[in-house]
Amino acid sequence: MGTLLACEAKKLRRSKILLVALFGMVMILLIVAAQGFYAGSDAVYGMEPAWFLTGVQSLGTLYAVPGLIALFGCYLFCRELQEDVLKSIRIRPVDIPKMLAAKMILVFVFSVSLYFLLFLAAFGIEAALHVQTLSLELFCKYCRMYLIEGVCIFIAVLPIICIVIRSGQDYWLGLLLSEVYSFITIFIGNLGAVSKLYPILAALTLSGYYESDLTEKFLCLLSMILCLLLSAILMGWHGKKAE
Q1: CA-CA-CA-CA torsion for 70, 9, 24, 199, nearest 10 degrees?
Q2: What SS3 class is residue 22?
Q3: Which of 73, 80, 170, 238 has the fewest C-beta atoms lying within 10 Å of its C-beta?
């Protein structure tokens, strides 16, 4: 497994997909800053302590990060099909299930790392603006929220990745579908407790962004489990097709 992970990581050096992710991160920070410091009223939200940390977490998830994760994941899985190298892989002694598992681990690491880097960037901006209000407790609180969200958004986007690779379509389709998928969250959020079954809302709730009771937490966990089950079924079909 270690060899497969190293091989998949080396393949990324020849692509620009990580630069796309970096560009997306910078755009998230700029858009949140533009919203927070645009004085459309008497209040400038960006000057409120911890507002930037909260804004990056919520707006990033609603508008950009799921798409970046889906794009990265679909790229890893669809590249062999689009570059017509899957035939060469089949004639070599490569364990296809382990190769797919290695790709999935990389997508997971990418998701958590992306959220962690966003947290560090947002916290750095908060330190520049409100250093007097920062504390170790605040750092740990938001670090935990971002990391949990990184795990949960990975699970929430996983079915989209599996649908795209199952269909054999271009990996950019993953970005498009995930952007629509996350944007719909804005409208579903008004449906009450049942809205917690929607994976993106479930991820935000489990991270602690939304307050929730025991029933809502149960619905969120159920949503994550359903995403994993659906993804496992789709990935199983793809694995049989690739062998």
Answers
A1: 30
A2: helix
A3: 170
